[in-house]
Structure formats: C-alpha cells, structure tokens
Amino acid sequence: MATMRHTLFVFIAVSLILISLSCQQPGGNSTGSEYMPDMVYSTAYEANVYYSYSLNTWDSASVFTRLDLMNPRNPVAGTVPRGYAGYSFAHNPQEQQAAMAMLTGQAPGSQYTPANGHVPYYYADTEEERIRATAEIIANPFPITAAGLVKGQELYTFYCGICHGDKGDGAGYLVRDPNPATGDAGGKYPAAPANFMLDAFIDSSNGRYYHAIMYGRNMMGSYADKLSFEERWEVIHYIRSLQAKVRGLEYSETANTLNPAYGVPGASLAPEEPMN
C-alpha cells in the first residue's frame, strides 16, 4: 500500500512539474503556450523571411537550411542571362547602346526580345567602387520611350516616392507629413532622403543612381531584388524627366536637352538609323 501511495505521489509530482513547464507565459516575441505550433509559425517557404523556427527547420545534417531555401536564387557564376550577351560583353557605351538597340527592336532587322532580369554587375559595395561606377557608367542602355517613362513613373511611385517624394525633391511622405502621434511638425523619418533636384544630382552620371539601386545608400536599402535590369533604368529615366522639368528642359522619346550623352530618345532610333 505504501508503495502504491509513493508511486502515485511521484506520478502526481511529475505531472505537476510537466504542467507547470508547459504553461509558458507570453511576453516579448514569445506567444507562450501553443496548442498547435503550426498555427503560429508558417510552414511555407516565404521569400525574404529571415526568422528560423526550430520545429520547422532542416536539421544540421541537411544540405540546405530553411533560411537558404527561402532566399532569392542567383544565377550560376560566370553565366550570362538570355538576351544580354551582347550587352554584358560590350567594351564601351557605344557597343552597349548597339546591343540594346537589337534587344529592343530598334536596329534594322531586329525584333524585341524579352530578356532575363538579372545582369552581372562588376562593382563592389564600397565607397571606392561607388565612385568608380559613377565615373564609368554613363549612358542609359535603354532608349527614352513614352511607355518606358510611364512604367518608370509607376515603379518610382511604388518604391521611391514615399521617401524621395513625387517630385523627386526629397519631400516624401515619411519626411513631409506631420506625425499626429508625437505632435511633431515634421514627418516620421528623421533623415531626409536625397533631393534629386539639386544640381549635384542633376549633373551626376547615371552610375550614381544605378549603384544606389544595386546596394542602397546611407539609410536606403538595396532594390536589386525588387527591380529587374530594365526596370532600374526605367526608374532612372523617369528621375531624369523630373529633373528636366525643373530646369525647363525636355527629356522624352523625341528629345533630350537635359543630358544628351546619358539618354538617347527612342523616337530618334528610326530603322534606317541604327545605334552604333
């Protein structure tokens, strides 16, 4: 009888301990007790999600971690995306323009060829390389077209306008509008974004913009995984069109009086006038 009571006591004690350990209190990032973990943590692979949940993660013996499987993929090193071989191996801006004229159907006998969005970028994420990119990347490989400017405006509004403003003057929503929650007269973001309407930005080469899109700059993060190769240049085209308005100049598919060396109007690329 004593043995049975002792066994029952031990069973009750262990049960109470297990119950007390399982009743976790929520706090911070912890939800506390979970009836079904999969109702709290997603079992799906989601792009750009960096958390690691131990009950839904490959173990140390696996070839890939769940974090690796969730991240965007890069092409095989040394390969050239379909359609961009001519541009990738061009030796100068003139050859790049000629290659893009073939891709966009502007050159004689050419046809528009949708191409892969990934293109090699040969500049590192350092200040020295940013300066080098600014000095070496001059011409926009895509011609200025009405459709491209419309697309560039759409992309700019979606990705850039909240910080840099609809006019490109750095007065976006985050810095322009007041914050009722704090009573501040300024916006929600303490660091003012770049004002593209300043002379330093208007007179700068396209490489300054492209490098910032690829790696980010100061508080701005990279948009290389958000914008394809062509979309990045469409955004730059649109920024240039905003700058042209400020200076009373034209930047369109018919004329470029802002910076003729940086962007070629699409309407000037008649079939009998190939870019070379």
Structure description:
With 276 residues, the protein is an all-alpha fold. The protein has a domain at 122-268: Cytochrome c-like domain (Cytochrome Bc1 Complex, Chain D, domain 2). 38% of the residues lie in helices and 0% in strands. It is built from eleven helices and no strands. It has helices at residues 2-22, 66-70, 85-88, 93-103, 127-136, 146-159, 161-164, 173-176, 199-202, 206-215, 229-246. Helix 5 (127-136) packs across helix 10.
The sequence of SSEs as H and E is: HHHHHHHHHHH
Tally of helical runs: 11
Secondary structure: number of strands: 0
User: What structural class do you assign from the helix and strand content?
Assistant: mainly alpha
Note poorly predicted spans: 270-276
Q: Tell me about the biggest sheet?
A: none
Q: What share of residues is helical?
A: 25-40%
CATH class of the domain at 122-268: Mainly Alpha
The whole-number mean of residue pLDDT values reads 77
Terminal CA distance reads 102 Å
CATH topology of the domain at 122-268: Cytochrome Bc1 Complex, Chain D, domain 2
Portion in strands: under 5%
- The best one-word shape is elongated
Radius of gyration: 28 Å
Question: Any descriptors?
Answer:
Cytochrome Bc1 Complex, Chain D, domain 2, 11 helices, disordered C terminus, mainly alpha
List the topology elements.
Blueprint: H1 2-22, H2 66-70, H3 85-88, H4 93-103, H5 127-136, H6 146-159, H7 161-164, H8 173-176, H9 199-202, H10 206-215, H11 229-246
Helix pairs in contact: 5-10, 6-11
